[in-house]
Amino acid sequence: MSRARLNIFLERDHARRLDELAAMKGLSKSSIIAAALSSFLSPDSGDQREAAIAKRLDRLSRQLDKVERDQNILIETVALYVRYFLTVSTPVPEAHQEAARAQGRARFEQFIEQLGRHLLRGRSLVKDVYEEIQPEERQFFGLDASTGDHRPATPADSKTEAAP
């Protein structure tokens, strides 16, 4: 295959990045430029770019659908809790309202502190509560039974937990 020699001018940043890529991949700069030019001049390069963009958009759409689903679950959960709380809460007599407010402030401060600690740990409260209710089901979430750390479940896990 015969090749034509070209002298081209590149911006300094592009030349630096080309040098780095050639060194990292162990390829010649000419082969990298030839591959890039071939891809650019390919008749279906536009279709390939469009397909790649469509694939990314589909993935983003699925992720957004999951976020929307999770948000709806959260909204419904909070609404159900508020409705239940307001339904079963007894009114506080006038004489005890100041003490109830003080206790409410203290509970709210405690709630905020617990929330902060929990967020710093980076674990899901749903998983924690589920583990409290069903401790034998820890492998359901891929958790190490001794530390609570995430790890892949192995076939040995089911044998170990099945043995009394």
Automatic annotation (TrEMBL):
Species for this entry: Xenophilus arseniciresistens
Keyword set includes Coiled coil: yes
Entry keyword annotation includes Coiled coil: yes
Biological processes per GO annotation: regulation of DNA-templated transcription
Coiled-coil regions, chain positions: 50-77
InterPro entries per record: Arc_rbn_hlx_hlx, Ribbon_hlx_hlx
Lineage: Bacteria, Pseudomonadati, Pseudomonadota, Betaproteobacteria, Burkholderiales
Protein name: CopG family transcriptional regulator
Alphabetized UniProt keyword annotations: Coiled coil
Region (Disordered): 140-164
Highest taxon in the source lineage: Bacteria
